C-alpha cells in the first residue's frame, strides 16, 4: 500500500452534522498521530487570495539584496539567506524569509505585546494581501484546534483564548535556485520539527516538502495548490505528552529544474504565558514532563535555530 498524507474536508466540521463533525475530529487525530500531517480542502481561504499572496511574494524577493536587508528587524520583516539553521544542524538552510504577526493596533484583550510589522514600500500590494492571509489562516487554525480538542478530552473552545492573540507568525519563504558553490550537505530546510501548536500552510509553489514517516523513510507531501497543509509541533507534543507528536520534516533540494520555491507556513502559537502542562487525558501515555510556559519553550527553540542570541 502506498502511503499518502490524508486529505480532509474542513467543511465537514464547519457545516456538517454532529456525526460528520465527530468523524472529522477522529480523522484529524488519526492523521496527526499516523503521519503528523493532514491536507485540508474546502477550508474557505480563496485560491485567488493564495495566488495573489504568492505573486506579491515573488515581487518582494525579487527586490535588490540591499533593499531587502533594510527591512531586517528581528522577528518581524526580512531575514537574509543563510541565517537560520535546523536545531543541531551545523549548516545554514538555503532560504530567506519575511515574517508577519498580529498587528499591535489590532491586538485584543489578553494579547502579548507585539512588535510592529515591517512592510516593503516597493511592493505596496504585499501588506494588504499578506495581512488578509494572516487573518484567514489564524481563523482556520483556530477551527482545526476546535476540531482536535474533543479528541483530547477538552471542550471544543478550550484552545480559543490561548491562541486567538498568540505569538503566531506567517513566514513568507523563498528558496532560491541552489548555487553551484553551495556547501556539501546543505539543503533548503534541514530536518526539523515545528515549535508551535499547529502549522497551517498553503500548498507551496514548488516541490520538496517531505515528512519522516513512522518506518523511518522520507515521504513526499503532494498537495493541490488550492489546499492547506496542517502539521503539529513541539508545543502540541509537550501539551499532549506525545499523544499528538511533532513530526520531523524537511525541504530537499530540487531534483528537477533548479528553480525558486516559495511557501507560506502560518505558525500558530499560544500566548507566551500559556502553561504547557500535560493534559489529564494524556498522562498515562508516557512519563510526564514538568510544566513549561510557551514563552520559555519558544525562547529555547529560537536560540537552538539561530534566531535568538
User: Roughly how many Å is the radius of gyration?
Assistant: 19 Å
The overall pLDDT average reads: 92
What is the 3D form? globular
Poorly predicted spans? none
The strand count comes to 16
What's the helix count? 8
Structure classification: alpha+beta
Instruction: Classify the beta-strand content into a percent band.
Output: 15-25%
Helicity, as a percent range: 25-40%
Element-by-element helix/strand order? EHHEHHEEEHHEEEEEEHEEEEEH
What is the CA–CA distance across the termini? Answer: 46 Å
Biggest sheet statistics:
10 strands, mixed
Question: How would you characterize the overall build of this protein?
Answer:
- Helix 3 (47-61) packs across helix 5 (125-148).
- The protein has helices spanning 11-14, 18-34, 47-61, 65-69, 125-148, 160-163, 234-239, 294-304; strands spanning 7-9, 37-41, 72-73, 76-79, 96-101, 169-175, 189-192, 198-202, 209-212, 218-220, 228-232, 249-251, 261-263, 266-268, 275-276, 292-293.
- With 309 residues, it is an alpha+beta fold.
- It starts with 6 loop residues before the first strand and ends in a 5-residue tail after the last helix.
- Strands 1, 2, 3, 4, 5, 6, 8, 11, 13 and 14 form a ten-stranded mixed β-sheet that branches. A four-stranded antiparallel β-sheet has the order 7-12-9-10, with no helix packed on it.
- Helices cover 28% and strands 20% of the residues.
- The protein is built from eight helices and 16 strands.
Amino acid at each position: 500500500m502506498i502511503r499518502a498524507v490524508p486529505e480532509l474536508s474542513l467543511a465537514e466540521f464547519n457545516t456538517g452534522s454532529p456525526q460528520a463533525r465527530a468523524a472529522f475530529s477522529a480523522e484529524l487525530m488519526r492523521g496527526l498521530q499516523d503521519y503528523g500531517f493532514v491536507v485540508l480542502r474546502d477550508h474557505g481561504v480563496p485560491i485567488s487570495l493564495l495566488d495573489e499572496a504568492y505573486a506579491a511574494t515573488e515581487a518582494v524577493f525579487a527586490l535588490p539584496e540591499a533593499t531587502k536587508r533594510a527591512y531586517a528587524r528581528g522577528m518581524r520583516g526580512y531575514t537574509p539567506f543563510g541565517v537560520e539553521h535546523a536545531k543541531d544542524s551545523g549548516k545554514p538552510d538555503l532560504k530567506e524569509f519575511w515574517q508577519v504577526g498580529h498587528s499591535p493596533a489590532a491586538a485584543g484583550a489578553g494579547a502579548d505585546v507585539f512588535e510592529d510589522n515591517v512592510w516593503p514600500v516597493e511592493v505596496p500590494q504585499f501588506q494588504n494581501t499578506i495581512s488578509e492571509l494572516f487573518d484567514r489562516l489564524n481563523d482556520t487554525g483556530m477551527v482545526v484546534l476546535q476540531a482536535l480538542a474533543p479528541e483530547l478530552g477538552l471542550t471544543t473552545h478550550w484552545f480559543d483564548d490561548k491562541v486567538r492573540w498568540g505569538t503566531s507568525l506567517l513566514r513568507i519563504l523563498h528558496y532560491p535556485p541552489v548555487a553551484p558553490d553551495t556547501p556539501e550537505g546543505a539543503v533548503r530546510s534541514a530536518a526539523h520539527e515545528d515549535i508551535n501548536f499547529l502549522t497551517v500552510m498553503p500548498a507551496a509553489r514548488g516541490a520538496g516538502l517531505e515528512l519522516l514517516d513512522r518506518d523511518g523513510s522520507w515521504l513526499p507531501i503532494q498537495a493541490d495548490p488550492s489546499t492547506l497543509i496542517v502539521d503539529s509541533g513541539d508545543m502540541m507534543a509537550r501539551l499532549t505528552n506525545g499523544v499528538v507528536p511533532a513530526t520531523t520534516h524537511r525541504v530537499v533540494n530540487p531534483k528537477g529544474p533548479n528553480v525558486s520555491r516559495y511557501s507560506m507556513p502560518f505558525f500558530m502559537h499560544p500566548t507566551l504565558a500559556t502553561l504547557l502542562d500535560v493534559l489529564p487525558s494524556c498522562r498515562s501515555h508516557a512519563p510526564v514532563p514538568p510544566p513549561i510556559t510557551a514563552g520559555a519553550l519558544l525562547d529555547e527553540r529560537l536560540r537552538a535555530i539561530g534566531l535568538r542570541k
